[in-house]
Amino acid sequence: MPENHVSDIHGLEPQEFLSQVHSFEFWFESVEGYLSGRPYGHQPDTVETPLSDLERDRLITALCNYCIGETVALEGASGLIAIAPNREAKIFLATQVADEGRHLEVLLRRLTDLGVTDPETEIEKHANRSLLTFRHRLRELVEGRDWEASIFAQNVILEAMEFSVFQTHAEVADPITREILEGIVKDERRHMGFGENDLGRRLALTPHIRDRLNVLRRSLDPLVLETFEDTLSQLGISRSEHPGLGRRYLETVERLGFAS
């Protein structure tokens, strides 16, 4: 996105700013720079690094759970469109659905490139139980039409979890996987921004919501932390080697003033 366009956006009045950044036009400009010329999430000339059998198996297990996470995000964002409080939020969530669908597509393609012939069966075999429980909890919130709790679980907690995991993994990943994850992280940052902005404005007007969301966070945090532990184990990374993983997640959630 051109730098002068960003400056113009931030000079707008608050309501006009929200209308612009939640638009498809803004989304097109945001993603074009890192999608153009990158079929399936990476540059065609990026060389595949040889992996040992153990490294390949670990990567496949991690990618299977990333596919579950992106499916959860895809289902959550699509369900949230129906209960969004205004048209601007509905439009933004429509762009997020497109993002999540593309993330799932490129991750499935990466599994195929690694020799997985039946991704659906492989994903089911490696599914993290905590992540599946999170999926169930988010579905309940969306079906209950609880906007504040749903957007908190989806665009703050889930997106912060994926943002943190993908950033950490990208630091040690093979070149192709790194390019894919770095592209996804750019989208996750935008999704988190929407959740933080929406909830920040709501909490300023109705601070009593914070207590209810804190209760929700305390029930979801253990699922997130267990998923972190499992992901690091899948990748053969000691948690002590990457203390920043949990910190990245906590910093994101705590920007809204939620205590651990």
What does this structure look like?
With 260 residues, the protein is an all-alpha fold. The protein has one domain: Ferritin, core subunit, four-helix bundle (Ferritin, Up-down Bundle). It is built from 11 helices and no strands. Helix 4 runs antiparallel to helix 5, helix 7 packs antiparallel against helix 10 and helix 8 packs antiparallel against helix 11.
How many domains in all? Answer: 1
CATH topology: Ferritin
Question: What Rg is obtained from the alpha carbons, in whole angstroms?
Answer: 18 Å
What is the share of helical residues? over 70%
Strand content: under 5%
Category from helices, strands and their pairing: mainly alpha
CATH class, anyone? Answer: Mainly Alpha
Mean pLDDT over the full residue set: 86
Order of helices and strands: HHHHHHHHHHH
The strand count comes to 0
CATH architecture: Up-down Bundle
**Any idea what the shape is?**
globular
Uncertain runs are 1-12
Write a concise keyword list for the protein shown above:
260 residues, mainly alpha, Ferritin, 11 helices, 77% helix, disordered N terminus
